[in-house]
Write a structure and sequence with these properties.
The longest helix is centred in the first third of the chain and has 19 residues. By secondary structure, the chain is an alpha/beta fold. It contains ten helices and eight strands. It has an eight-stranded mixed β-sheet, with helices on both faces. It is globular. It has one domain: 3-Layer(aba) Sandwich (Rossmann fold), CATH 3.40.50.
Length: 302
C-alpha cells in the first residue's frame, strides 16, 4: 500500500518531541548498542538466512518475491529505487549515506545499482570490518566506505544527495536529533528513506508488555508512531513523499514454534542472542496483533 499523509505544524512537532522523550527508556547508550551488535552480528549472518545478500534486516515477502534472496534483498532495492529520483545526472557525482549500515549489504547493492559513492556509518567495529571486507571483495572499495559513528556523533562527511536508515532509527537516543542530523548532512532536494518498526498508538496493557519486551530484547531507545515520526521529520525540514506499509509481507515463526521460543526466552539468561530471540518473538506478536507496523517512509529535504 502506498500513500502520502498530511503534514503537521510546528506546535504539534513540539508536542511530539515531548512525547518522544517520554516514550524512550533512555537505558541503552551507544556503547551498549555497539556491544549488542558486536556480539550478535555473526549469528545474524549465520542463522538469519540472508546468505550472499548479507542482510541483518527483515525479509519482505511482497507480491512477486519467490526466493529468500529476493525477500532479503527487497529493502535494498526499495532504497535504491527511492533514492534514484533525487540523484544528479552528472556521472559519479552522487553521494549517499547509509545510517546504520550493518555489514554493508545494502550499501554495496546501492553502489552496484546506482552510480553513487556510499558512506556507511555504524556503532559496531565488527560490522565496519565485515562491511569493508565485503566492499573490497566486490571491487567497490573506491566507491563504498564505512566508518564508526553514532547519530549524535557523526564523522565528518560531505553533503549528500540521499540517505537511508534500515532498522536503525529505533536505536536513536534522540528521535528529533536524528532528523536534525540527517538534514545537516543532506542537500536540498535530497531524499531520506526510513525502513523500520512504528508503534500503533492504540494500546492495551497486553500490548504495552509485549512492546516493552521487544524494546528490551533489541535494545531500542525510540519506538514512535508514524504520525509522531513524520511530525519530527517535517520540523527538521523534510517533506513526506511516500509511505509503504510492509507489515503484511513479514513472515514469522509457525505459531507453535513462536509460543515455544517466546516461553523459553522468558527465562532471563545473559546471552546476547537470547535477548535478541526474546525481542524478536515479542515483535512477531506485536506485528500479528497490529500493535506495531513495519513501514518504509520516504522524505525529501526542502
Amino acid at each position: 500500500m502506498k500513500e502520502v499523509r498530511g503534514q503537521v505544524g510546528s506546535e504539534a512537532a513540539d508536542e511530539v518531541r515531548g512525547q518522544a522523550r517520554s516514550h524512550q527508556d533512555g537505558s541503552y547508550n551507544p556503547q551498549q548498542i555497539a556491544q549488542y551488535y558486536d556480539s550478535n552480528t555473526a549469528r545474524f549472518l549465520s542463522l538469519g538466512g540472508s546468505g550472499d545478500v548479507a542482510a541483518i534486516h527483515r525479509a519482505i515477502w511482497a507480491p512477486g518475491v519467490t526466493t529468500q534472496a529476493q525477500a532479503f534483498g527487497f529493502l535494498n532495492q526499495l532504497v535504491a529505487n527511492a533514492l534514484q529520483p533525487a540523484l544528479p545526472e552528472e556521472t559519479g557525482a552522487a553521494r549517499v549515506l547509509d545510517l546504520g549500515c550493518g555489514v554493508g549489504g545494502t550499501a554495496t547493492l546501492v553502489a552496484q545499482t546506482l552510480d553513487v559513492h556510499v558512506t556507511g556509518v555504524t556503532l559496531s567495529p565488527a560490522q565496519v570490518q565485515l562491511a569493508q571486507q565485503r566492499a573490497e571483495a566486490l571491487g567497490l572499495a573506491s566507491r563504498v566506505n564505512f566508518a564508526l559513528g553514532s547519530f549524535s556523533a557523526m564523522p565528518e562527511l560531505p553533503a549528500s544527495h540521499g540517505a537511508y536508515a534500515i532498522e536503525s532509527f529505533v536505536h536513536a537516543d534522540d528521535a528529533a536529533g536524528f532528523f536534525t542530523m540527517a538534514a545537516k548532512h543532506l542537500l536540498p532536494g535530497a531524499r531520506l528513506v526510513l525502513c523500520d518498526d512504528f508503534l500503533n498508538p492504540r494500546h492495551t496493557a497486553e500490548a504495552k508488555a509485549c512492546v516493552a519486551r521487544f524494546r528490551r530484547g533489541w535494545h531500542l531507545n525510540t519506538l514512535l508512531s508514524e504520525e509522531d515520526t513524520c511530525a519530527l521529520a517535517q520540523s527538521a525540514g523534510f517533506r513526506l513523499v511516500e509511505v509503504q506499509d510492509l507489515s503484511a509481507h513479514l513472515r514469522g515463526f509457525h505459531p507453535l514454534l513462536l509460543w515455544a521460543v517466546s516461553t523459553l526466552t522468558r527465562v532471563p539468561l545473559p546471552w546476547a542472542y537470547w535477548h535478541n530471540l526474546a525481542g524478536g518473538t515479542a515483535l512477531q506478536r506485536c506485528v500479528k496483533k497490529g500493535w506495531t507496523r513495519y513501514l518504509a517512509l520516504i522524505w525529501e529535504r526542502v
